[in-house]
Amino acid sequence: MFSVLADRTYRHLFLAQVVALLGTGLATIALGLLAYDLSGERAGLVLGTVFAIKMVAYVGIAPIAGAFANRWPRRAMLVGLDLVRATVALCLPFVSEVWQVYILIFLLQSASAAFTPTFQATIPDILPEEDRYTRALSLSRLAYDLENIISPMVAAFLLAFVSYQALFLGTVAGFVGSALLVVSVLLPSPQPPASRGIYDRTTRGMRIYLATPRLRGLLSLNLAAAAAGAMVLVNTVVLVRSDLGLGDSQVAIALGAFGGGSMLAALLLPRVLDNRPDRPVMIGGALVLVAALLALSMMALVYDTQWIPLLAGWVIIGIGYSAILTPSGRLLKRSAHAEDRPAVYAAQFALSHACWLVAYPLAGWLITVSGPGEAFAVLALLAGIGMASGVVLWPKESSQSVQHSHDDLPADHPHVRDGTTHSHPIVIDDYHPHWPRMRGIDNHREQR
């Protein structure tokens, strides 16, 4: 897995991701404690609103950023967005009202909504081979898990000496460090896009995404991941502080357990995906999430919340969560031409976070008005809907090549030089605006 770090450009981008996520992890913990400090036992509701605002920014800004990502120098764009995020994070230690948190989070996450899809779409240009890209995806998942393991460990240590407001300074340092690492390498020039109108550019990624069966299945599985992830991220502070009566350090430890499960899965997935297709691995991850949420619901309803079972449940949820999210980049890379990748990655970013926009406030509201048992049960139902939809929308057997006709193209068009009826792997583009109905399937089948 770590062999891809021999590539200097990727290594610097990976390290940029690590330091930015470490800072973001400190901010996540500090925001939970800030919400509890400002709102007490209603912290779950406040955090649900904070995360909903984050999702609104992601859903609204990402498609616009994706439409223009190929028109601006990527390095300058990424560095500028990092500096914007650092500036906003510098303001967070000084807030005293909930509405101030809401405004700053919207600004911070709007910059992230432009940064993250552009960053993700750059990696397959640096590592075009699928086996190397798969390992990069697992390393990226590990980097995200550092937010849930190392950041809580650092936070637990720092909280013994300083107040939680000081953790926001770590966020500033993370974004500045990310900018310095990005500016230290040359990034591939974006593929020149065809001349299109603003509406066409803004909606192109969404249209490609929603026209591709495997990506519709991915969106459904993202709903399952969001349901379980929202329960962890929104309600850990309430479960640990209010239900169990434990302290700030235990909040960090619980979030670390979730990250530990996710990291374990990310370490194992490259070898698993070398021998198994993506679909059963990802659907299996969704099944794990549903089972874990149901088990925790029964525990909360019968025995009340318990510390050790909660930690075990968070580890298991982390495993299922990573099994869904880690392979998703492979599906995106396979489903778009290079010039359309930023738009498709932005569509994934926006649509997946639309799932979080539903799950975040729902998780906070449920635990506030009904308690943890009911919250676990309803979110298990939501995850089950996502899993079942993924099974239906993502066909079990698909073909590497699909036979189809181009009756709308002249016989001398370069795309149909082998005949207006031909067979090849389908990617939604100007020649294939819709997924063709399969007239036949070649002998090579794959479950991807």
In order across it, which strands form the biggest sheet?
Answer: 1-4
Oligomer: single chain
Distance between the termini: 21 Å
Rg, nearest Å: 22 Å
Instruction: Tell me, rounded to a whole number, the average pLDDT.
Output: 80
Outline the low-pLDDT stretches.
439-448
User: What is the N-to-C order of secondary-structure elements (H for helix, E for strand)?
Assistant: HHHHHHHHHHHHHHHEEEE
State the helicity in percent bands: over 70%
Shape category: globular
| Structural class assignment | mainly alpha
Mind explaining what this structure looks like?
There is one protein chain. With 448 residues, the chain is mainly alpha-helical. The protein contains 15 helices and 4 strands. The chain has helices at 8-39, 43-68, 74-91, 98-126, 130-146, 150-158, 167-183, 198-211, 213-243, 248-275, 278-303, 307-325, 328-334, 341-369, 372-393, and strands at 398-399, 402-405, 421-424, 445-446. The chain has a two-stranded antiparallel sheet with strand order 1-4. The longest helix has 32 residues, at 8-39. The chain is globular. The two termini are 21 Å apart. The model is unreliable at 439-448 (pLDDT under 50).
Brief summary of the model shown:
The chain has 448 residues and is mainly alpha-helical. The protein has helices spanning 8-39, 43-68, 74-91, 98-126, 130-146, 150-158, 167-183, 198-211, 213-243, 248-275, 278-303, 307-325, 328-334, 341-369, 372-393, and strands spanning 398-399, 402-405, 421-424, 445-446.
